[in-house]
Amino acid sequence: MKNKLSIYFRYLCASGFAATSLSCSNTKFLKEGQMLYTGAEVKIENDSLSKKERKELKTALEANLTPKPNSTFLGLRPKLYFYNIAKEPKKEKGFNYWLKYKMGEKPVLLGDVDREFNKDIIENYSENKGYFNARATYDTVSKNKKAQVIYTLRPGSRYLISNVKFQKDSSLVNKEIQNLTNKTFLKPNRPFDLDVIKNERERIDNGLKEKGFYYFHPDNIIVQADSTISKNHKVELNVKLKDNTPDLSTQQFSIDKVIVFPTYNIQDVRDGKYHIPMNPDSLSGYAYKDIYVVDPQHKFKPKIFDRALYFKKGDLYNRTNHNLTLNRLISLGVFKFVKNEFITSDSLQHKFDAYYLLTPREIQSLRLEALGRTNSANYAGSELNLNWTHRNFFKGAEQFKAAIYGAFDFQMGGPENAKNLFRAGTSVQLSIPRIVAPFRFNSSSAFVPRTNITLGYEFQNRTEYYTLNNFTGSFGYLWKENARKEHDLKIIDITYVSPAKVTELYKEMAEKSDALERVVTKQLIFGPTYSYTYTNTMLSKPTTIYYKGTLDLAGNITGLVTGANVEKGKEKTIFGVPFSQYAKIENDFRLYHKFTEKTSLATRFIAGLAYPYGNSEHIPFSKQFFSGGSNSVRAFRARTLGPGSFDPRTIQQGYYFDQSGDIKLELNAEYRANLYKFLNVAVFADAGNVWLINEDTDRPGAKFSKDFLSEVAVGAGVGLRLDFSILILRLDLAMPLRVPYYEKNERWTFDKINFGDASWRKDNLILNIAIGYPF
Q1: Which residues contact 517 (CB under 8 A, 6 or more apart)?
Q2: What is the rounded distance in angstroms from the CA atom of residue 564 to the CA atom of residue 614?
Q3: What residues contact 46, with CB distance under 8 A and at least 6 apart?
Q4: I need a surface site. Which of 15, 260, 419, 718 has the fewest CB within 10 A?
Q5: pTM of the predicted model, to two decimals?
């Protein structure tokens, strides 16, 4: 113990000496008279400000100061050090160039700081925030060739809004502005804030755009501030149209003709403008309802534009329909460029023609992919895909996809008897950009709803065990309410699994386990599935969430009609194969919180339940839940955790570890930090397990009970992520902290941790290699 403490103490001393040396060594590279700029600080002298107001103002002011000092890490400036020690390269390549200009960072000197300019920034920003009498000074503090600039701000009292007036007149545009005043951002007794005033102008502009004022601009609005009315640091605001507002900006415009060019070539752009290739007066031969579709070669059915376009002849212009139309045209998936122009056709009646200039993508494409892949079962391998895509199959923007693939997977870091897996198959999908149904489906979403029809076949060979034929088919709908909410409803989702060959080795194992027997039993699964996804992770907010809920109902109506009841000996079949009957629900909730630009916390909670009944005593193996592995509880091998407190070490030799359950609970938390460009690290903790609904005599302790909390496995570890944009390589090293299949009073393993024991490391340190983030 003393030796360990001595080594630790010497390590700290050495680290401290190295840090001091690195910190001091940067200044020795400075020339005579140069000083390293270490940053700026803003001090605020105003006792009337609250602590919160003082902090917010100080943070905002310091963020606006320039330049920024050299970056630091743990109080050191390693990038500056790399710049200093690297020789000046003769060419823009080589090690010295990389070290000096890629890894390194040029020194920021005191001479680079314009202190008068920063003082003006501080005063101007303060005045924009309502501190009308703000005054700033600065001082420079230097020591050991390092310099810091201290700015002192005396902001005075902050001015508040006393009253807000929206000036009235008899014009049509003013009447519309008056109708928008009830949602104004300018409120009495709120601080004067120039940013809020800018937002108010944009709010009025957005409201007028919805009422046909296409040519209006936020700059047409002026907000006058009068601080002479009150002596109590109050200001009155007067919102009005500028006197020089163009007449065109005050007119409401409506749609005259809607004209679509679906085969427009972007190369026809000249002088930076699109040139309309046809006179609008000669469009009669291209009329479809109220739309003119100029498509002489008839590559597209005109009715797809009737569904996608929200503008019709005579409609008053509004920005919502403008953006909806553009988004829907893009979401058709057949156009790579979508351009929209409005050209005045009747200036007296304030009408314009709406032109849509659409440049198609390549209608057909053939792609060959060679992939490296990993999955949640710790399998890694390669996959070869040949994909053919037709983006306008029936000339209605239908997407037809056909694929042939082959894959070979082997388990990395898993049990020795897991065996390799070979898969080969084919699939086809037809995606129609509308809801194909006996009822009418109307959607005001910016995304085109789709009807998807899929068929697939896969041949699966688990070496030395069995081969399976897997047939799938589905018919359903995919639609998005908006960018955050998505619905996926499969009216019918069919899976048929038939064993082609089962080896004698596997048959011997299956005789001792009903679970193994069910893997190679013919399975027929059909029924509706529905999933709902909500996410706002695309927003630039510090906290975002992701949720996906899935409901799977198999054989329910068929089981009800046929009176199926396997417990009473009334098992029903279709073409000699018993169909599965169950209800399954799964919830996946994730929360992401960003602390800084380089640090964040990601958490996930999974709760799932699958309940067999009627014609089924068990959930089909392919539909059950699994735990453990690179995307789950990482301190346990893939699919070796659970169910419940069942001990997988009791399994007979030769049984690959695929432990499944009907109930799943899992919680994950991961702190992520960026160290340098593509290099990221993580510290994580995982907890979870799976359980069975019914008792299984082959797996004691597997059934869900009131003691389920004591059977939750816990693990923790550290990870390294190499983010190359197109590929994220992830390495996670984890160890178990709580093992559910140990005796109850021995499940927590803190006292068993021994990094010096090679056998302990081999059995308890689990390395997960994967592609992409776990969640």
Answers
A1: 510, 511
A2: 5
A3: 54, 154, 155, 156
A4: 15
A5: 0.79
